[in-house]
């Protein structure tokens, strides 16, 4: 089996092979724009070669910082929003036991990694503070711009907590700042206070930054093998470098999505059958949504956590409006398994006794796929062999390179996100931030 297989055999009734061939010239052009830096947003495409061209010295510093945190902290608070936390959260869930975050100190082999600054809820923050209790903790504050409101508020709170607990000097030694190399409020503060700093490279946008210090430090603290993560991404960098659709599964994925979109399939559901993959879907949603949803177009990215959601909106997928398609992400070898117990009790499960749950799960996914295809929902399958760091790196790169091609195929700049500013402006206006006086008046009059 290959590291990642991409199966489009159930698309036959939706997309003709000929349609893909017709897209090849556009894919070739998109590939050229992406790789020669002649496309829109080219200044933000350094993630393409990141798996092989990263700062080795900083990488070693990340590993020693992770060891330091593991040695003096029971908890690491990762403060960030969007691309500054989704990748780490996805990877940590993907690589660890589902409930590892709830383990007791005795059960734990690495610090508990918790996330703050990804919402504006005081209730959430209070509950997190309660969870940390009197345990030793460190903070990794992450913001590429260094000016995002949500993490800035959370950082104020945790900085104060650290100073109260460890004193001003002690606190500084427990704060790790991941931000721009030159600019932003966080960079200025980190320089002034002397925090250990890590860099979000200029040419890597937030949603493409999981393989930089942004993702790597929290992942390493949680015990993830970041060498293997980078090795997997590097292998994918080689595997997905050919512009010929026949030889490039990531490009095929981009082209099929485009063909489907043109036919009115405007919502894509990324499907999983493992709770440890749920957060991967959240990471993917930002990657797709911010890259493609602009200029009045783009596929709407959503997720399906199965079989759970089959019992909630499964009905809609099967028989609702026919504008959906699904991309199933599944893992061949289960991380662990349960054998369905043998019993005399007549609970209707006699035909399954002695079977592995992974077998039942597999049959559920195969059966669902066929049912959804029969119901008019195109399905593609991305399958990785194992749920480990190497395969995760490979999978991340698959989706990243695909979205670059996909954005260009749909005629948008996949590397900006101008629309995200609209809510921020209104929030600042309503909060009365200096410089927004006129807007403040206009908005308040409308409420
Ligand atoms: O890392 P930061 O600069 O704090 O940005 C965090 C996130 O917020 C922004 O609004 C952007 O739209 C996202 O692309 C980004 O990942």
From TrEMBL:
Isomerase among keywords: yes
Associated pathway: Carbohydrate biosynthesis; gluconeogenesis; Carbohydrate degradation; glycolysis; D-glyceraldehyde 3-phosphate and glycerone phosphate from D-glucose: step 2/4
One GO MF term: monosaccharide binding
Matching InterPro entries: G6P_Isomerase (IPR001672), Phosphoglucose_isomerase_CS (IPR018189), SIS_dom_sf (IPR046348), SIS_PGI_1 (IPR035476), SIS_PGI_2 (IPR035482)
Name of the molecule in the record: Glucose-6-phosphate isomerase
GO cellular component, one term: cytosol
UniProt keywords, alphabetically: Cytoplasm, Gluconeogenesis, Glycolysis, Isomerase
Gene transcribed to yield this protein: pgi
């Amino acid at each position: 089996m290959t590291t990642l297989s991409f199966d489009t055999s159930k698309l036959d009734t939706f997309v003709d092979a000929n349609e893909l061939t017709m897209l090849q010239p556009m894919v070739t052009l998109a590939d050229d724009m992406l790789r020669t830096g002649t496309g829109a947003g080219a200044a933000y495409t350094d993630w393409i070669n990141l798996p092989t061209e990263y700062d080795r010295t900083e990488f070693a510093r990340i590993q020693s910082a992770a060891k330091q945190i593991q040695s003096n902290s029971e908890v690491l608070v990762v403060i960030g929003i969007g691309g500054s936390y989704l990748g780490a959260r996805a990877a940590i869930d993907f690589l660890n036991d589902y409930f590892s975050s709830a383990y007791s100190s005795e059960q734990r082999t690495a610090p508990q990694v918790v996330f703050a600054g990804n919402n504006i809820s005081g209730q959430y923050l209070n509950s997190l503070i309660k969870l940390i209790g009197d345990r030793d903790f460190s903070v990794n504050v992450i913001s590429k711009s260094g000016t995002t409101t949500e993490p800035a508020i959370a950082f104020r709170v945790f900085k104060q907590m650290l100073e109260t607990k460890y004193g001003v000097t002690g606190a500084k030694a427990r704060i790790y700042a991941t931000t721009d190399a030159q600019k932003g409020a966080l960079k200025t503060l980190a320089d002034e206070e002397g925090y250990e700093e890590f860099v979000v490279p200029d040419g890597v946008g937030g949603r493409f930054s999981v393989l930089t210090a942004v993702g790597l430090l929290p992942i390493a603290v949680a015990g993830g093998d970041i060498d293997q993560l980078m090795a997997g991404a590097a292998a994918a960098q080689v595997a997905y470098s050919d512009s010929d659709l026949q030889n490039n599964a990531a490009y095929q994925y981009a082209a099929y999505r485009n063909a489907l979109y043109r036919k009115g399939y405007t919502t894509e559901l990324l499907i999983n059958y493992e709770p440890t993959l749920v957060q991967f879907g959240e990471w993917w949603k930002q990657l797709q949504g911010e890259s493609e949803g602009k200029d009045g177009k783009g596929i709407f990215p959503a997720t399906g956590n199965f079989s759970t959601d089959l019992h909630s909106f499964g009905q809609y997928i099967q028989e609702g409006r026919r504008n959906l398609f699904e991309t199933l992400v599944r893992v061949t070898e289960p991380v662990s398994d349960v054998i369905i117990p043998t019993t005399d009790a007549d609970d209707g499960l006699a035909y399954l006794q002695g079977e592995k749950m992974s077998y039942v799960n597999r049959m559920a996914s195969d059966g669902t796929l066929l049912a959804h295809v029969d119901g008019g929902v195109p399905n593609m399958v991305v399958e990785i062999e194992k749920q480990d760091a190497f395969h995760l790196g490979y999978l991340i790169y698959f989706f990243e390179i695909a979205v670059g091609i996909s954005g260009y195929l749909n005629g948008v700049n996949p590397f900006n996100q101008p629309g995200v500013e609209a809510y921020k402006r209104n929030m600042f206006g309503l909060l009365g931030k200096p410089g927004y006086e006129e807007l403040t008046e206009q908005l308040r009059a409308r409420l």
